[in-house]
């Protein structure tokens, strides 16, 4: 009856920003990033990646309420860095890690397919290198 | 930003078993957050195509319209096109009705029973207007791979008796599992931590063969065995270990605490992926990586946010007595 639409969970409403940044008023080099329509998937990888940065003194995220589809990432850094710098760095590093992951996965599935052909152990059609499908539209 | 520093990791992957609908692989040298993000994305954010809108012309079957529409939605459709398709909510080719070729696929179904025997209406009666999007069991039948083609009679939608008829038009659209589970390409996706098992050999040798046998038997799954020639206890299948700690308790009960130590390696994972057939399992993993990359791209700070902060920063410096 009055249930919110299902798409509310992942479509950012018009006029709202995906990420908003708020500096801490009392502590220097501390800030909160509010990310709309994201959850533990992004929150947790960001947090763990931020922990790898030695300039980050604190990094955490919370999902304030299961029906508020947003997460808040809080970062506190040393004076050699800034929350924004750490945040950007974490995303860049994760992106590179995923690129690497894609490469090694493709390489290994290609190797597996070749082995299956040479050994002739697989009577069915071997699962040859899956083609990365085009992802033109967003 | 000093672009030189990087805290990036270089994970490793080893694929153990690939089938169209099943995949087992090792993911090493990363952490649980990445493994879990991949798992979550595979289940709920990799897009597929499923029936979303049903216009019923005639339905004199025993099931009501909504019931049939729901059953149609749950039929997995081949979704290799899904990644390049548009979501109908942000398709501008059609005027918001979500029925154009870029964002939808039309199906037709028309069956009438004119015999005394009960007639099964199945996924094979669904006529697709796009040959690349068909029910997965129909696709499997034409390529005769996967399950046995002679056994395959399609997914039953409804049964009709004499005189009953079902006629409808259905629109399939792109969607994600987060919206509705019918769009999830994954039947199951799990990962386990790889166990690291250390047997204290000196202590083990102090046990009699009988005790060794009892200890090996105490594990509910077959992790350990006794070498028939040397009578040594060996680890035969570390991954069979379910972290039940029965062998540790047994060792303590035998008065031999520390006989075995088992740790979960928190950087190494063993993934099991089962697909519904909508996307090949190996493609599912690749799509998940791509979707996760796009999600990360979307949470990058926009330039206006950064500028606003810089201005605020200068103002702050002034206020602090600059």
UniProtKB/TrEMBL annotation, chain A:
The lineage of its organism: Eukaryota, Viridiplantae, Streptophyta, Embryophyta, Tracheophyta. GO terms for molecular function: DNA binding; DNA-directed RNA polymerase activity; protein dimerization activity. InterPro entries: RBP11, RBP11-like, RBP11-like_dimer, RNA_pol_Rpb11_13-16kDa_CS, Rpo11-like. This is DNA-directed RNA polymerase RBP11-like dimerisation domain-containing protein. Belongs to the archaeal Rpo11/eukaryotic RPB11/RPC19 RNA polymerase subunit family. It is found in: Nucleus. GO terms for biological process: transcription by RNA polymerase II. Keywords: DNA-directed RNA polymerase, Nucleus, Transcription. PANTHER family: DNA-DIRECTED RNA POLYMERASE I,II,III, DNA-DIRECTED RNA POLYMERASE II SUBUNIT RPB11.
Automatic annotation (TrEMBL), chain B:
Pfam families: RNA_pol_A_bac, RNA_pol_L. Its main location: nucleus. One of its GO terms (biological process) is transcription by RNA polymerase II. The keyword Nucleus applies. GO terms for molecular function: DNA binding; DNA-directed RNA polymerase activity; protein dimerization activity. SMART domains: RPOLD. Gene3D superfamilies: DNA-directed RNA polymerase, insert domain, RNA polymerase, RBP11-like subunit. It is found in: Nucleus. GO terms for cellular component: RNA polymerase II, core complex; RNA polymerase IV complex; RNA polymerase V complex. InterPro entries: DNA-dir_RNA_pol_30-40kDasu_CS, DNA-dir_RNA_pol_insert, DNA-dir_RNA_pol_RpoA/D/Rpb3, RBP11-like, RNAP_Rpo3/Rpb3/RPAC1, RNApol_insert_sf, Rpo3/RPB3_RNA_Pol_subunit. The keyword Thylakoid does not apply. Keywords: Acetylation, DNA-directed RNA polymerase, Nucleus, Transcription. Residues 22-302 form the DNA-directed RNA polymerase RpoA/D/Rpb3-type domain. Belongs to the archaeal Rpo3/eukaryotic RPB3 RNA polymerase subunit family. NCBIfam families: PRK00783.1 (NF001988). This is DNA-directed RNA polymerase RpoA/D/Rpb3-type domain-containing protein. It comes from Stephania japonica.
């Amino acid at each position: 009856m009055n249930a919110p639409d299902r798409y509310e969970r992942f479509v950012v409403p018009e006029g709202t920003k995906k990420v908003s940044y708020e500096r801490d008023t009392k502590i220097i080099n501390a800030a909160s990033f509010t990310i709309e329509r994201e959850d533990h998937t992004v929150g947790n990888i960001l947090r763990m990646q931020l922990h790898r940065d030695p300039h980050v003194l604190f990094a955490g995220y919370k999902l304030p309420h299961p029906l508020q589809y947003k997460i808040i990432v809080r970062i506190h850094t040393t004076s050699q860095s800034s929350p924004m710098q750490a945040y950007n760095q974490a995303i860049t590093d994760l992106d590179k890690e995923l690129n690497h992951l894609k490469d090694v996965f493709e390489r290994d599935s290609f190797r597996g397919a070749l082995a299956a052909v040479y050994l002739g152990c697989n009577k069915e059609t071997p699962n040859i290198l899956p083609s990365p499908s085009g992802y033109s539209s967003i | 930003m000093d672009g030189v520093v990087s805290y990036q990791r270089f994970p490793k992957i080893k694929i153990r078993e690939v089938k169209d609908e099943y995949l087992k692989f090792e993911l090493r040298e990363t952490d649980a957050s990445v493994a879990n993000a991949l798992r979550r994305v595979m289940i709920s954010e990799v897009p597929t195509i499923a029936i979303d809108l049903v216009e019923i012309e005639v339905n004199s079957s025993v099931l009501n319209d909504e019931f049939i529409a729901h059953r149609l939605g749950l039929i997995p459709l081949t979704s290799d096109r899904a990644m390049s398709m548009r979501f109908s909510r942000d398709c501008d080719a059609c005027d918001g009705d979500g029925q154009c070729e870029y964002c939808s696929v039309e199906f037709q179904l028309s069956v009438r029973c004119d015999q005394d025997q009960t007639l099964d209406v199945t996924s094979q009666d669904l006529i697709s207007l796009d040959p690349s999007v068909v029910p997965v069991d129909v696709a499997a039948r034409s390529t005769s791979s996967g399950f046995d083609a002679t056994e395959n009679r399609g997914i039953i939608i409804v049964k009709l008796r004499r005189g009953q008829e079902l006629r409808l038009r259905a629109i399939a659209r792109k969607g994600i599992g987060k919206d509705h589970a019918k769009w999830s390409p994954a039947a199951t996706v799990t990962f386990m931590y790889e166990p690291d098992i250390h047997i204290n050999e000196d202590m083990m040798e102090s046990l009699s063969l009988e005790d060794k046998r009892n200890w090996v038997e105490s594990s509910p799954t077959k992790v350990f065995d006794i070498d028939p020639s040397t009578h040594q206890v060996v680890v035969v299948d570390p991954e069979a270990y379910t972290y039940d700690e029965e062998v540790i308790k047994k060792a303590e009960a035998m008065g031999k605490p520390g006989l075995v130590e088992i740790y979960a390696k928190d950087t190494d994972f063993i993934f099991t992926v089962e697909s519904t057939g909508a996307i090949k399992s190996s493609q599912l993993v690749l799509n998940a990586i791509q979707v996760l990359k796009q999600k990360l791209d979307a949470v990058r700070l926009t330039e206006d946010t950064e500028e606003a902060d810089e201005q605020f920063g200068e103002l702050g410096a002034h206020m602090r007595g600059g």
